[in-house]
Design goal:
This protein is an alpha+beta fold. The chain folds into two domains: 103 residues, Pseudouridine synthase I, catalytic domain, N-terminal subdomain (Alpha-Beta Plaits), CATH 3.30.70; 137 residues, Pseudouridine synthase I, catalytic domain, C-terminal subdomain (Alpha-Beta Plaits, 2-Layer Sandwich), CATH 3.30.70. It is built from five helices and ten strands. Strands 1, 2, 3, 4, 5, 6, 7, 8, 9 and 10 form a ten-stranded mixed sheet that branches. Strand 2 and strand 3 form a beta hairpin. It starts with a strand and ends with a strand. The relative contact order is 0.18.
Length: 255
């Protein structure tokens, strides 16, 4: 009997073309999970017995090069293995840059994407004389330290429910671009500058565009008060640059 399983997954997105299937590559997180799970079921069924098509549904669609500490996904499986055995099999055969941290039975109606009520993303920058040798895959290196207080002032105007079309990387977006940002925190520790975004949902490239815009504000290229005009304009060309993917990490999905 097929049952619904909830998986919590961590991954280093450096080598991958994002979460979702891509037509011209096998290097996606979704694809790797589905391949290993299909192999697990094939081994259970035995040679010559067909295996049903699997779809691992993710809570979000992280872009190429983006990382995750706790991506949540779900999949329907007809397996005799218990949760611990499924987790052990996945971690044995998945690449070393993908880890399944938990596997749990869940309600049949649980959908990792549609049932999510919030997400937390972190974006990490580095600015110091030394190079971030051991963090180089996970931080964006800045040439100079931005003004943290200017960025915090701008971030305060971005919190709340707004139309974030100016911060959406998909110019053909036909669905609503209204989202709620519950909180934006900007923290400095040594050479690290970390941006935390907590919201009910995020548009394509939204966090990276927000970071680029805040950095421009921190460098004095735009004023904090401009955030209100940017939100009202609904024009991507008026917002800041899209920060590199490698600094972004999905930290948490809420239900």
């Amino acid at each position: 009997m097929r049952r619904n399983y909830k998986l919590t997954v961590s991954y280093d997105g450096t080598r991958y073309q994002g979460w979702e299937h891509q037509p011209d590559t096998e290097m996606t997180i979704q694809g790797k999970l589905e391949t290993v799970l299909t192999g697990m079921l094939a081994a259970e069924r035995g040679e010559g017995v067909p295996v049903e098509k699997l779809t691992v549904i993710g809570a979000g669609r992280t872009d190429a090069g983006v990382h995750a500490r706790a991506m949540v996904c779900n999949v329907l499986l007809d397996t005799a293995k218990d949760e611990a055995a499924v987790q052990a099999y996945l971690n044995r055969y998945l690449p070393e840059d993908i880890s399944v941290n938990s596997v749990k039975h869940c309600a049949d109606r649980f959908h990792s994407r549609f049932k999510a009520t919030g997400k937390v993303y972190r974006y990490t920058c580095w600015c110091a004389d030394a190079k971030p040798v051991f963090d180089r895959r996970y931080v964006t290196v800045l040439d100079e330290m931005p003004d943290i207080e200017r960025m915090r002032a701008a971030a305060a105007l971005l919190k709340g429910m707004h139309d974030f079309r100016s911060f959406c990387g998909n110019s053909r977006m036909s669905k609503s671009t209204v989202r709620t940002l519950y909180d934006i925190r900007i923290e400095k520790s040594g050479g690290y500058v970390r941006f935390y975004f907590h919201g009910n949902g995020f548009l394509q490239n939204m966090v990276r565009i927000l970071v680029g815009t805040l950095l421009e504000t921190g460098y004095g290229r735009r004023e904090p008060e401009e955030m209100t005009d940017l939100l009202e304009a609904g024009n991507r060309r008026l917002a800041g640059f899209t920060a590199p993917a490698k600094g972004l990490c999905l930290m948490k999905v809420e239900y």
